[in-house]
Amino acid sequence: MNSPSAHKIIAIDGPAASGKSSVARELARRLGFVYVNSGAMYRAITWLVLDRGIPADDAAAIEQLAESVAIACELRDRDSFVRIDGVDPEPFLREDRVNDNVSLVSSVPRVREILVDHLRRYAVTNDLVMEGRDIGSVVFPETPFKFYIDASPEIRLRRRAAQGQRDRVTARDEADSSRRASPLIIAEDAHVIDSSNLTIDGVVGEIIGRLKLKGLTIAR
Ligand code: CDP
């Protein structure tokens, strides 16, 4: 499944706690597009790896699990949900152990291939706002609508702490940016927004302005 989609895809990438999720969700709501958080898929598989007692550095066992497990992607009210091995993993996705191990599990190339295949299927029947690390660079490189949302490390740490989470965001960024398979990069045709001093509405407004300039018709 590699052919360009006939549907519109807005790719939003960036480091941990840069505000991607809030922005992507609000943008999808304003445009009437489906919202997909690709990180939730990587978190779901990480949770299953840990739940099965597989060490997060055992790439061969992780690969085997990813190849054999049932992954079901569902849409409800233009929001995406994943079931893995028949379980809704949502309550576990932000556990400390998932935060601590998700970058390692996500660095396994076969895990990425399998999840990218699932992510691309959303575009067969839907216009999308999809957020992640490699959406503009690898998942949908052909889309003309690419954004990279950043914020200073201090602000990102503060945002995550305000969510009540222990999350070593800088360690995760370092791992995500330096891995061999689909590292976090700024796609060369992405529009970069520093959200450090912007509200969610401010970032969404900037994106919508840019989308209009690029010729996207926006109804509301
Ligand atoms: O919300 P937050 O920025 O903390 O991260 P996330 O989007 O939930 O992603 C969690 C982790 O999944 C990242 O740190 C990456 O290791 C991995 N990920 C990835 O490798 N590729 C993606 N497209 C999305 C997430």
Question: What is the strand and helix layout of this fold?
Answer:
Elements: E1 9-13, H1 20-31, E2 34-37, H2 38-51, H3 59-68, E3 71-76, E4 79-84, H4 96-106, H5 109-125, E5 128-132, H6 135-139, E6 145-150, H7 153-162, H8 169-178, E7 191-194, H9 200-213
Parallel strand pairs: 1-5, 1-6, 2-5, 6-7
Antiparallel strand pairs: 3-4
What is this structure, in a nutshell?
With 220 residues, the chain is of the alpha/beta class. 47% of the residues lie in helices and 16% in strands. Helix 2 crosses helix 5 and helix 3 packs parallel to helix 5.
Describe the overall structure.
- The protein is an alpha/beta fold and 220 residues long.
- The protein has a single domain (9-212), classed as Rossmann fold.
- The protein has helices at residues 20-31, 38-51, 59-68, 96-106, 109-125, 135-139, 153-162, 169-178, 200-213, and strands at residues 9-13, 34-37, 71-76, 79-84, 128-132, 145-150, 191-194.
- A 5-stranded parallel beta sheet has the order 2-5-1-6-7, sandwiched between helices.
- Cytidine-5'-diphosphate is lined by residues 16-17, 21, 38-39, 42-43, 102-103, 106, 132-135, 172, 176.
Q: What would the CATH topology be?
A: Rossmann fold
CATH homologous superfamily heading: P-loop containing nucleotide triphosphate hydrolases
**How big is the Rg?**
17 Å
Order of helices and strands: EHEHHEEHHEHEHHEH
Largest sheet: 5 strands, parallel
Q: How many domain regions?
A: 1
Architecture per CATH nomenclature, i.e. the level-2 architecture: 3-Layer(aba) Sandwich
Terminal CA distance reads 32 Å
Q: Estimate percent helicity.
A: 40-55%
Main-sheet strand order equals 2-5-1-6-7
Poorly predicted regions: none
Morphology: globular
In DSSP terms (H or I, runs of 4 or more residues), the helix count works out at 9
In the CATH scheme, the class would be Alpha Beta
By DSSP, the count of extended strands is: 7
Structural class: alpha/beta
Catalogue the ligands.
cytidine-5'-diphosphate
Mean pLDDT across every amino acid position? 94
Q: What portion of the residues fall into strands of 2 or more residues?
A: 15-25%
